[in-house]
């Protein structure tokens, strides 16, 4: 009996010591995380609270804010300008993300095939990604000008005419912005996807080749499934960046002609700084942020799911 009580006492002592060590580690982790949490609260928490307060108020940027409740949100969802900006944002995000990911995948496959001079292509194709968006906007705005732009000059040489005002037409302006977004964003996606492809073991491709698998089937049945987490991350990032692509749109079209290229960030800028309606602008920002949060969580969920063959 005495031996059993000694064993029980030793066991309970070990449990108490283990519990105390666990609590001490938890306190240490919390203390180490505290500075980062304080920075997040100061840099993000306080501004978000202020933004929500502004979205529930009427304010022209000067003087006190007048609380009006949910009126800004109620007016937002019956405002045709908001619907137009939301549709343009979705079109820009979807078309540019799909386009640049397809091009980036093709370029990554091209370079990963051990071709000569691949290092040069890595540098050249990445250059647009490091160019300032404002400079890109100015460059392509000049390039698509009628008569004098290089795009129209090239079309004139091909006998297709050199007088097309692409950015002045509501039917083509947004698609020009999409094309420029693809041109600028492809380099980043290309390098990330290329790195993911180069991490795939060569032995997997060799085994597939021995089994008689064609290069096309290897790409769709081996490469794509293995790089899917990286591809999902690239798609998510590019979609978010395109959805928030204020600089490129504003630098090329100022939201025109008319409202044909107005996206949500442009609408926020116009409401707040051109018309002095900070309440509706804050409401648009909140709604846009919620859309991006939903997009982000959905992308993370889809990217973390395993395919049936894994």
Relative helix content: over 70%
Structural class designation: mainly alpha
Secondary structure tally, helices: 13
Mean pLDDT: 85
The string of secondary-structure elements, in order, is HEEHHHHHHHHHHHH
Which residues form runs of ≥5 with pLDDT under 50? none
Distance between the termini: 55 Å
Structure description:
The protein is mainly α. It folds into 2 domains: 2-41; 72-304, Orthogonal Bundle (MetI-like fold). The chain is built from 13 helices and 2 strands; from the N terminus they run αββαααααααααααα. β1 (57-58) and β2 (66-67) form a beta hairpin. α1 runs antiparallel to α13 (278-304) and α5 packs parallel to α11. The longest helix has 54 residues, at 2-55.
Compile the SSE list and pairings:
Blueprint: H1 2-55, E1 57-58, E2 66-67, H2 71-76, H3 80-111, H4 118-130, H5 133-143, H6 150-157, H7 173-198, H8 202-210, H9 215-226, H10 228-243, H11 246-252, H12 264-274, H13 278-304
Antiparallel strand pairs: 1-2
Helix pairs in contact: 1-13, 3-7, 3-10, 4-7, 5-11, 7-10, 10-13, 12-13
Short description:
This protein is 75% helix and 1% strand. By secondary structure, the chain is mainly alpha-helical.
Key words describing this protein structure:
13 helices, MetI-like fold, two-stranded antiparallel ribbon, 310 residues, 2 domains
């Amino acid at each position: 009996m005495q031996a059993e009580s000694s064993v029980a006492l030793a066991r309970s002592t070990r449990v108490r010591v283990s519990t105390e060590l666990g609590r001490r580690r938890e306190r240490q982790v919390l203390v180490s995380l505290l500075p980062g949490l304080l920075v997040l609260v100061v840099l993000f928490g306080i501004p978000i609270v202020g933004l929500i307060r502004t979205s529930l108020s009427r304010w022209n940027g000067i003087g006190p804010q007048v609380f009006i409740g949910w009126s800004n949100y109620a007016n937002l969802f019956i405002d045709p300008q908001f619907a137009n900006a939301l549709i343009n944002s979705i079109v820009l995000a979807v078309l540019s993300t799909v386009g640049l990911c397809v091009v980036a995948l093709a370029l990554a496959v091209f370079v990963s095939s051990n071709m000569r001079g691949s290092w040069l292509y890595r540098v050249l194709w990445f250059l647009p990604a490091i160019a300032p968006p404002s400079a890109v906007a100015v460059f392509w705005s000049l390039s698509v000008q009628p008569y004098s732009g290089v795009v129209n000059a090239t079309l004139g040489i091909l006998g297709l005419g050199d007088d097309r005002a692409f950015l002045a037409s509501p039917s083509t302006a947004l698609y020009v912005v999409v094309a420029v977004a693809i041109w600028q964003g492809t380099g980043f996606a290309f390098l990330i996807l290329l790195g993911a492809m180069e991490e795939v073991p060569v032995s997997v491709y060799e085994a597939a080749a021995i089994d008689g698998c064609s290069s096309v089937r290897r790409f769709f049945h081996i490469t794509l499934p293995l790089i899917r987490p990286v591809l999902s991350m690239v798609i998510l990032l590019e979609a978010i960046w395109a959805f928030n692509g204020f600089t490129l749109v504003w630098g090329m079209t100022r939201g025109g002609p008319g409202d044909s290229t107005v996206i949500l960030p442009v609408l926020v800028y116009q409401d707040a700084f051109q018309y002095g309606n900070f309440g509706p602008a804050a409401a648009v920002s909140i709604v846009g942020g919620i859309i991006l949060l939903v997009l982000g969580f959905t992308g993370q969920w889809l990217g973390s799911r395993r395919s049936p063959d894994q």
